[in-house]
């Protein structure tokens, strides 16, 4: 039996704004096994980004719990949660979110900034990860000197430089052309094959081809409608 | 990669904003340094000028209404006949707690003697004022006193100077006021030697080395005093003990002049202690003029301090507002830092480090700018002939102050950064 890496139990999230309440998650329970790759799909406002932020230890749920590798994430203090993010999670954000005044190498070194390692070690680690994502010759370029695909690769390198067990991605191909998007998805697939547990929020059904499982969210719940699932999966195979 | 790399890179990217912060600090620090530099230089100049007045405390017997004027100092006329001050009183001054404030104590005995008989043709039976003094202390309280060298003496009297060498040990031409007046150690008179005022020397026809009879006793002219336009031009100075013997008034002192340095202690305390030590005498301070100037400086210091504090405060606001704006602009960036595992303290460190780096430069440049303003514009601003020295001690103070300001100004932006919700910053919500 596969080992559970992520266990979400009965998650709810209510946002309050100007006296109004918005129910973003309505009791989501989900287990993701170690080494699994999961695509989360759904329309805008379905709660998939909220789910990702809660799983990413950035957004406490209104109720319910999240365990990653047996750690109850929201039982940790805020500062411990920061340490947890650094050690357990790699984030690939929408639109890359690179720091514009740092080179590709420095961007990748960012998660190592507060780690007790020599600069040389940090440089070597970041350099080797950049080689792994195919950017060996562009380490000293600033983000605005890189193409969209290259920036995405830097963002992925930054997410995995700490060798976290879980990789979270939010619309990683949203701002890329189809060919580059496919290359990036192939990279995610390779990382997953290397043992990383991947959870990706995506709008693009094509991306589900590269993932071992797809879940659909609708109105803050996991969708169990088989017809809808089939429709999405077949769209992804076209 | 360390936190300071991030801070340095961000400074490089936001040059214009950082320049603004730098200017805010620079102007504040420069104002403080220049005001302080000018005021301190003014204070030094004032002290120098006050010192130039020489004696600033006079101790006289508490006497009746009949007065006698001596060098601008009003003396009771009866003093010449009545013993009122003595060597004991001088000793009492040396024992007061504030004695470190006193730069010199110059007791003196004034009297009249009959000069003449030293050389053929000398004026016979001329009454002269003799003043018994401690020569070194006297010269300390009267910085204008100088000895005339032999050379000057001869050229002035029209004699041939050939074959005469000025005695080196008597060349005490203090071109500039020197409070220490180290040369004074060479001014040692024996009880048979006298110093003669320039006008009196001319009237008596004596010069250095000559013999002069005073009330039947023979003295050698140690030196003639240079023209000073003061009462000493008409007097004969000799050792206090010699004067006491000559005038037949052993252990008597007519008055005591003192030079006090009020930068070392309080004037009020000194006067009170003197009055307590010498209950039956009149202690007068000649500091009215000095006090007036001191008050002016105090007002200037207050004004300068207020302006400096105000400008520093404005500088701090500029720094704070600019840093706060920078934090708002970097919301997303800070969200990324937090999302990839930076602790709140790490984010605060980045913000404060940026302020620290800029303030280091602001402090240093502010110091140099301030000193330059004080150095070049100081004399104009103060309307005085002052020389503002480059104060290295202010350098450290400037940098420290700039750092303190940036840290204080950075508190609010740092709190803003810490309060940022990373999920919101990354638009997950």
Can you put this structure into words, describing what you see?
The complex is a heterodimer of chains A (238) and B (429). Chain A contains seven helices and ten strands. With 238 residues, chain A is of the alpha/beta class. Chain A has a single domain (4-237), classed as 3-Layer(aba) Sandwich (Rossmann fold), CATH 3.40.50.300. In chain A, the strands form two sheets. Chain A has a six-stranded mixed β-sheet with strand order 6-7-8-3-9-10, sandwiched between helices. A four-stranded antiparallel β-sheet of chain A has the order 2-1-4-5, covered by helices on one side. Chain B is α+β, with helices and mostly antiparallel strands and 429 residues long. Chain B has a nine-stranded mixed β-sheet with strand order 8-9-7-10-6-5-12-1-13, sandwiched between helices. A two-stranded antiparallel ribbon of chain B has the order 2-3. In chain B, strands 4-11 form a two-stranded antiparallel ribbon. In chain B, helix 1 (3-13) packs across helix 11, helix 2 runs antiparallel to helix 9 (288-329) and helix 2 (15-52) packs antiparallel against helix 12 (392-419). The longest helix of chain B is centred in the last third of the chain and has 42 residues, at 288-329. The two termini of chain B are 31 Å apart. The chains are: A alpha/beta (238), B alpha+beta (429). At the A-B interface, helix 1, helix 2 and helix 4 of A face helix 1, helix 10 and helix 11 of B.
């Amino acid at each position: 039996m596969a080992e559970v890496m992520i266990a979400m139990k009965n998650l709810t999230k209510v946002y309050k704004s100007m006296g109004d309440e918005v129910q973003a998650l309505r009791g989501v329970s989900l287990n993701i096994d170690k080494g699994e790759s999961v695509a989360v799909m759904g329309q805008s406002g379905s709660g998939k980004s909220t789910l990702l932020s809660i799983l990413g230890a950035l957004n406490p749920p209104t109720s319910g719990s999240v365990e990653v590798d047996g750690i109850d994430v929201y039982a940790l203090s805020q500062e411990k949660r920061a340490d947890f993010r650094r050690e357990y999670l790699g984030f690939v954000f929408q639109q890359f979110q690179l720091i514009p005044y740092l080179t590709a190498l420095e961007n990748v070194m960012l998660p190592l900034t507060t780690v007790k390692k020599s600069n040389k070690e940090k440089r070597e680690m970041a350099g080797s990860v950049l080689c792994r994502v195919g950017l060996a010759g562009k380490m000293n370029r600033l983000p605005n000197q890189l193409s969209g695909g290259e920036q995405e690769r830097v963002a992925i390198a930054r997410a995995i430089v700490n060798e976290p067990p879980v990789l979270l991605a939010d619309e990683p191909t949203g701002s890329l052309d189809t060919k580059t998007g496919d290359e990036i998805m192939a990279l995610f697939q390779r990382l997953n094959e290397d043992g990383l547990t991947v959870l990706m929020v995506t709008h693009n059904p094509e991306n589900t081809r590269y993932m071992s499982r797809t879940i659909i969210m609708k109105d803050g719940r996991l969708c169990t409608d088989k017809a809808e699932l089939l429709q999405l999966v077949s769209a992804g195979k076209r | 990669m360390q936190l300071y790399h991030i801070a340095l890179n961000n400074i490089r990217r936001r040059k214009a904003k950082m320049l603004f912060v730098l200017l805010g600090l620079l102007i504040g620090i420069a104002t403080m340094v220049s005001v302080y530099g000018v005021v301190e230089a003014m204070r030094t100049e004032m002290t120098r000028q006050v010192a130039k007045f020489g004696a600033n405390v006079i101790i006289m017997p508490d006497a009746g209404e009949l007065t006698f004027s001596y060098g601008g100092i009003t003396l009771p006329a009866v003093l010449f006949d009545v013993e009122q001050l003595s060597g004991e009183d001088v000793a009492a001054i040396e024992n007061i707690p504030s004695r470190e404030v006193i730069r010199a104590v110059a007791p003196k005995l004034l009297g009249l003697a009959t000069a003449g008989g030293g050389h053929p043709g000398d004026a016979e039976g001329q009454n002269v004022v003799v003043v018994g003094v401690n020569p070194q202390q006297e010269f300390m309280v009267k910085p204008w006193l100088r000895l005339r060298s032999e050379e000057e003496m001869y050229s002035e009297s029209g004699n041939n100077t050939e074959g005469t060498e000025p005695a080196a040990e008597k060349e005490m031409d203090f071109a500039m006021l020197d409070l220490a007046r180290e040369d004074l150690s060479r001014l040692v008179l024996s009880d048979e030697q006298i110093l003669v005022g320039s006008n009196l020397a001319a009237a008596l026809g004596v010069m250095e080395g000559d013999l002069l009879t005073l009330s039947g006793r023979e003295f050698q002219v140690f030196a003639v005093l240079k023209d000073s336009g003061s009462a000493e031009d008409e007097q004969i100075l000799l050792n206090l003990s010699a004067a006491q013997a000559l005038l037949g008034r052993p252990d008597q002192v007519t008055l005591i002049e003192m030079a006090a340095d009020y930068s070392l202690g309080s004037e009020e305390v000194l006067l009170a202690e003197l009055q307590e030590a010498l209950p039956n005498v009149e202690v007068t301070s000649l500091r009215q003029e000095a006090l007036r100037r001191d008050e002016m400086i105090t007002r200037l210091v207050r004004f300068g301090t207020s302006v400096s504090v105000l400008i520093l405060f404005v500088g701090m606001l500029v720094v704070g507002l600019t840093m706060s704006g920078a934090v708002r602009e970097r919301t997303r960036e800070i969200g990324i830092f937090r999302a990839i595992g930076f602790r709140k303290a790490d984010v605060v460190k980045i913000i404060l480090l940026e302020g620290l780096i800029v303030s280091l430069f602001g402090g240093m440049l502010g110091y140099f700018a301030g000193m330059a303003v004080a150095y070049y514009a100081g004399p104009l601003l103060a309307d005085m002939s002052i020389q503002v020295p480059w104060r290295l001690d202010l350098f450290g103070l400037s940098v420290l102050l700039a750092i303190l300001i940036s840290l204080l100004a950075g508190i609010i932006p740092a709190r803003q950064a810490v309060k940022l919700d990373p999920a919101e910053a990354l638009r997950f919500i």
